[in-house]
Amino acid sequence: MTQATKKSVGNQRTASKQARRKQLIAATLKCISKRGIGATTLSDVAREAGLSQGIINLHFKSKDNLLNETLRFLAEEYKQQFYKTLEKSGPDAADKLMALMTMDLKPSVCDRQKLAVWFAFWGEVKSMPTYRKICNDYDAAYDVAVNEICAEIIREGRYKNIDATTVTEALSSLTNGLWLSCLIAPDRWNRTVAMETVISYLQALFPKHFDT
Fold this sequence. Notes:
It is a single chain. By secondary structure, the chain is an all-alpha fold. It folds into two domains: 1-61, Homeodomain-like (Arc Repressor Mutant, subunit A); 65-212, Tetracycline Repressor, domain 2. It has helices spanning 3-35, 42-49, 53-60, 63-88, 93-104, 112-122, 129-157, 164-184, 191-205.
C-alpha cells in the first residue's frame, strides 16, 4: 500500500468516525427531547440510531461521555451560528444586536427539539459540574459579545441611567422566556409576536437606534 493510499484510507476512517459520532449525537438529541436525560438509556439511543449499543461504547465509552459531547455539540452549533450572524450583520451596533435577537428566534435555533434538550441540561447543571462548565462557557461568550454591543449603543446614543450589563442580562432572560414559551405552549406561541416583543423592548431602551 502506497503512502497516498494509506493517507486516503486514514481520512476515510476519520470521516466515518465523525459521521458515526454525529449520528449517535443526533439520536441522543431525539431521545432526550422525548424522555429527558434521566430516562434516556444507551439502548434507547442505539435503537433510535439503528445501531448496536456496542457502537456507542466504542465511540463514547459511557453514557456520561455521550451526554457531555451532546451538550458540547449543541453549544458549538449555537456558537458558530452566533458568530456567523455577527459577521454577516450590518456594521452598526444596532444592526448587530437586531441580527442576534432575530437569530435567537429563527427556526434553526428556536426549535422545540433543541430547546427541550437545552432545558433538560440546564435543569441538571446544579448537580453536574461538567454541564455547568459547558453552559457557563457558552453563556460567557454570549454575554461578552452582547455586552460590548450594548455598551457601544449606549455610548453612541448618550443614553443615561442604562447599564450594558443589566441590558444584556435582561435580553438573555427575555430570550430564555420566549424559548420556554415556545417549548411548553407551542399552540399559543407565535414567532412574529415574539419578535415584536423583543423589538418593543429595544425601542423602549434605545429609541434613537430602534425606530418606533
